[in-house]
Amino acid sequence: LPTGLYKKVLVILHDSILPYMNEPTLMIDFLTVAYGIGGAISLLALNGLFILIHQHNLEYPDFYKKLYSLLDPSIYHVKYRARFFHLADLFLSSSHLPAYLVAAFIKRLSRLALTAPPEALLMVIPFICNLFRRHPACKVLVHRPHGPEDMSEDPYIMEEEEPSRSRALESSLWEIQSLQNHYHPDVAKAAAVLNQSLSEIEDDLSGLLELSASELFDKEVKKKAVDVPLEFEQIRGLFGKKNDIFAEHFSLD
């Protein structure tokens, strides 16, 4: 099928087609093929697959391996980003997932975050924090004081397609620590949360999934300017000294 047709169908499939079918399982082959195509089509197929897995007992082999492979640099830029992360949040919510799998997702999202725009970072950092709250075994990624000093020695294998062989649990989240020096103050503040112990209550992502660059810009523009004092002593003379000879002969008025 043409790519454009896939997109038109998959955008409406989960809410305008599947609920009205007598046998939604007839769409299994179509959705699994679409999920295997890659890129935006795979992202759009996630909605329909979620309904079949959740409501119709579909067993999809290597589902998480395929979901892991969808994480590439474009994931923070596509217009379907909110939909993808909403579903990824659901898929990674189960407490029965192995620690190595969740650690692989955390590490890959963190590595890709190094080149992500601020609006995506303000969403993905709380997303990662929520994963730590659900899976405490992954906190070793944050608390590893004797990790490699050189980042080139990071044991995590970014190119590995199989999460179990990515060695994510042996690594550390130096990427998030580097984001603590981000040029956007909100991003730096969000990344610094991992320096303290996380609260048990998960962050609400609903208001962050569709955050845009224009919304961030408008927020900054509307901030009230704060007068920053640059001198703690009032200037008395031309060069600021009380008994300066210039103060006797020159005035600042």
UniProtKB/TrEMBL annotation:
InterPro entries, sorted: CCAAT-binding_factor, Noc4
Record Pfam families: CBF
BP GO terms, sorted: ribosome biogenesis
Keyword hit for Transmembrane: yes
TM segment ranges: 30-53, 84-106
Keywords: Membrane, Transmembrane, Transmembrane helix
Record carries keyword Amino-acid biosynthesis: no
Domain CCAAT-binding factor: 42-191
GO annotations of cellular component type: Noc4p-Nop14p complex; small-subunit processome
Family from the record: Belongs to the CBF/MAK21 family.
Protein's UniProt name: NOC4L protein
Organism lineage string: Eukaryota, Metazoa, Chordata, Craniata, Vertebrata
Gene: Noc4l
